[in-house]
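Inputs:
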Amino acid sequence: MEKNEAVKKKAYDPTFANEVFKNVDSGEGIKTCMQCGVCAMSCPLKEHMEYSPRRIFALVRMGERDKVLGSRDIMLCTSCYTCKVRCPRKVPVMDAMHGLAHYALVQGYVPRKETAVFGRKFWDCVYKLGKIDEKLVAQNFMLADGMIAGIPKALENMPMGLAMLFHHRMKLLPEKPIKDIKAFRKMLDLAEEIGKGGDK
Ligand code: SF4
Ligand code: SF4
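Outputs:
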């Protein structure tokens, strides 16, 4: 009986849920989730997830802070929109998953370090050139932990790189920055400021 009461108390711990509703982008939308499972069934990545979006939202309500913010699943979302379109309660599932991933990083959790590093290198390239240079992103990503760790990664990924070159998905020569890159960077700086809650 005592044990059941402890479980019950755990299942309704609202502390973390309130933290999410207040601080996570689109986190408030989780309030309306009725646990129907449509998002979980629809997600193309469900086979690769330990917890589906539905379960992540249930864990939020249960106060399972470490399980949610430490889960690699919140970083797996590829923004396919399926869950968002299909949710009968109009929960912004995809946005909440991204919101949780961002919040996890801000809180010092690194659920999937490689995804975070890749995202950073992708962003750096867009900032530098105004577009993507696949070679530059791949090179910076693979060398993120230094040359010694990077060489085996580069060898492992070489067939993919060659295939991309062969199918004209990647150019051999370095990409040049877009026209008026300074204005583009100014726009990104402004977007970043707005994202941090700045005035303008
Ligand atoms: S589809 Fe919507 S209501 Fe159903 S479990 Fe997912 S988020 Fe909740
Ligand atoms: S948007 Fe993300 S969480 Fe939603 S179905 Fe697609 S991959 Fe899954």
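Remarks. Residues 113-195 form one domain. The mean pLDDT is 88.
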